[in-house]
């Protein structure tokens, strides 16, 4: 439930919009009241973290459409922002700084691959993720971070040129959404901490880091792009909010036929 709200709210936030309300849709073959209550409880918690209202929703029973215990979940968020304050990346320029905010883990993206790797690895939910003291069940089911408080706090006082929610498509597909054709995001891969689960997935799935960054957030759930002076003011503020954040790259001039996201692994 929290993940459902997070995917919608974080996408509103990147435009500078304040989340107003959320509606959900829950469908199943036969309603399990306890299960539905648990899921809706997660949605309520996600709305609480977002500062938005759960305005309503729909619950549908469709016998024959779902296997026993299966259910489908959808929802959407409406936010509001004054026209002049819309954050669309149009002012991003060479020399701007890219700030990455820590994710809590996988953020409900790439799970088709995660399930395949998990099943083929032979581990169980009670096994400990290498390099941590947490179980696979705990790590793989950690809810997505909702960045509403951080974004609202920063935007109240500091100018932000562009924001990116790192979801499906990872770095390579999401960051170009806020870049003009004339610039490129130069990312330094070793500038932030990579949660151990991503190392495990890379090794078990026989993947490269570029492949991982095309699928997963690899530790960065949200990105802000701003000028140098503002970036220097932002980082201490994130620390005061107990939010891990790093300077992970810069905006450079794009050469002809150059990709808009380049990641260095030095």
Automatic annotation (TrEMBL):
Residues 94-260 form the PurM-like C-terminal domain. It comes from the Bacteria. Keywords: ATP-binding, Cytoplasm, Ligase, Nucleotide-binding, Purine biosynthesis. It holds the Pfam family AIRS_C. GO terms for cellular component: cytosol. One of its GO terms (molecular function) is ATP binding. Residues 1-81 form the PurM-like N-terminal domain. It is found in: Cytoplasm. Its EC number is 6.3.3.1. Belongs to the AIR synthase family. This is Phosphoribosylformylglycinamidine cyclo-ligase. It comes from Mailhella massiliensis. The gene is purM.
